[in-house]
Amino acid sequence: MKKFMGKVLALSMSIMMVLSLTACSSSDSGSGSKEGGKIGVAMPTKDLQRWTQDGENMKKKLEEAGYEVDLQYANNDIATQVSQIENMITGGCELLVIASIDGGSLSTVLTEAKNEEIPVIAYDRLIMDTDAVSYYATFDNYKVGQIQGQYIVDTLKLDEEKGPFNLELFTGSSDDNNCHFFFGGAMDVLQKYIDDNKLVVKSGQTKFEEVATPNWSTEESQKRMDNILTANYSGGEKLDVVLSSNDSVANGITNALKAAGYTKDNFPVLTGQDCDITSVKNILAGTQSMSVFKDTRTLADQVVKMVTQIMKGETVDVNDEKSYDNGKGIIPTYLCEPIFADVDNYKKLLIESEYYTEDQLK
Ligand code: BGC
Fold first, then answer.
1. HSE of 65 in the Cβ direction (CA atoms, 13 Å)?
2. Each residue's pLDDT expressed in tens, for the chain with a length of 362 residues
3. How many angstroms separate the alpha carbon of residue 228 from the centre of ligand 1?
4. What spatial distance separates the first Cα and last Cα of the chain, rounded to whole Å?
5. 287 within a domain of the structure (yes/no)
6. 342 CA to middle of ligand 1, Å?
7. Which of 273, 294, 295, 335 to mutate to test the pocket of ligand 1 (most atoms within 8 A of CB)?
């Protein structure tokens, strides 16, 4: 009997040990299972709503898929992002998902990843000049620009109307490879109307370098729009339309236009991208015309699928093997679909899909 009780005690002690170990491991990762391995997720900044959502979605979905996640935001500081990636490599991450700040400054740290045979997925922005990038997942950036350009053509009825309409051009950070696609996609639609003088850029600023906005900064775009208005539109000329590659840049343009006296009744056509809350509110108030919705949940789902495929040694899902050359070769890419958004469809896109609550947009 004593022997039997001893066995029961030993058994219950080992069950307790197993239970407490399990509890320990789940509280360690804050997520449950770690059996999938550890994934590093490097995001550029928390300043912009979209990256916070991207980071949170990636963490949640990777954890649900059984991975431990090291998620870091770099405050838009390149050196911080480099050191975060170094820590991920030394901290045992088996795969890195990176949304770069400056696509051209990660070559050295990613050589370390390559030496350790750690695969790298470039997230949303392509990482340039390195052969360490295995895959790229993003939205169709060229299409984003085309949607914006076509919106301008349709809204101003450029195929029927004579014009001329006054246009100003804004894109994002020149170190973000996406900008070439956003701006290129839009200009491929708009250029012929500029050539026909239906669209006139009074500032004369049409080159990529002239229309770029450092760090996609709202303050910078506001400053540039202020200067353009003072120099070219202070004698009663009306600005009719502004191409902006994204919402943070559009917000600065809106601020400058409002300060110059434009109201919802004569507001220029103004494009954007991301459906950030401030911009959706501006769309509802008539001080931005449209945005392009890139559902970060879709991109996160796709990237988690790619992570799982890489980790299991399966064939990785891609749908574009020609468009994205990072200077060392074509990177196999998965392109998600961007969606046009304006006052007419925002409810369906953003509220019914539970991306935002009605209250967030008040
Ligand atoms: C992203 C955009 C974003 C911009 C600024 C780009 O690389 O594709 O969605 O608005 O960066 O953060």
1. 24
2. 333 333 433 444 443 433 333 333 333 333 334 568 999 999 999 998 899 999 999 999 999 999 999 999 999 999 999 999 999 999 999 999 999 999 999 999 999 999 999 999 999 999 999 999 999 999 999 999 999 999 999 999 999 999 999 999 999 999 999 999 999 999 999 999 999 999 999 999 999 999 999 999 999 999 999 999 999 999 999 999 999 999 999 999 999 999 999 999 999 999 999 999 999 999 999 999 999 999 999 999 999 999 999 999 999 999 999 999 999 999 999 999 999 999 999 999 999 999 999 999 99
3. 24
4. 72
5. yes
6. 19
7. 273
The domain that contains 325 carries what CATH number?
Answer: 3.40.50.2300
Domains contained in the chain, number: 2
Establish whether residue 94 lines the binding site of ligand 1, counting it when its CB lies within 6 angstroms of any ligand atom.
no
Residues 124, 269 within the same domain: no
Q: What domain range is 49 assigned to?
A: 38-133+295-336
Any ligand 1 atom below 6 A from CB of 295: no
Specify the pairing of strand 339-341 against strand 291-293.
Answer: antiparallel
Report which protein residue has its CA nearest ligand 1's atom 3: 246
Is there a single domain that holds both residue 152 and residue 268?
yes
Q: In whole angstroms, give the CA distance from residue 87 to residue 70.
A: 10
Q: Would you say the CB of residue 124 lies under 6 angstroms from ligand 1? A: yes
Spacing, Cα 123 to ligand 1 middle (Å)? 11
Statement to judge: residues 299 and 287 lie in one domain: no
Q: DSSP label at 237?
A: P
Atom of ligand 1 nearest to the CA of 51: 12
Distance separating alpha carbons of residues 316 and 121, to the nearest angstrom: 11
| Distance of CA 359 from the midpoint of ligand 1 (Å) | 25
Of 128, 175, 101, nearest to 328 (Cα)? 128
